[in-house]
What does this fold into?
Amino acid sequence: MAYNSGEQAGYWRSTSKVAVLVARAIAYLVYFYLVVVEIILSLGFFLLLFGANPSSGFAQWIYRSLDRSMEPFRGIFTPVELGTTAGNEIKSVFDTSVLFAMIIYGILAVAIYSLVTWLTYRLDRLEREEQVASLIEETAASRSATAGVPGPMPAASDVGGPPSGSG
It folds into this structure.
């Protein structure tokens, strides 16, 4: 099956549009994941800093989630023990590794956000190009349809005689 250049351009535009949509969806998912990780890191940092009771259900969940997201950053810096909390004698810890992880995940989130913004711009540009191409095709089709049809015939009074009403 032979395609003309207009069909090929339309095919590539639609393929590019689908690729940009898929890439943008993936970027949004990664960005959402990074935002959730940042929230967990922030909560975990403050729970460690204030010496939250690790036997509490919420603290257990945050600490488990914190351990998963901190896996690549464990051992980079030594945590600083600030003392124990009053009442339940739990150590308060200033974990600089968590702060470092928050910075790295934050940089990744900004990079992914920039990628999403660029992909959105690219998608808008592809849609505008698609609209322009369809307008060009419509204009060409209407011109070719009217090319062989003569225009309106002038009235007999308009051809060669004095203007009507002067005479």
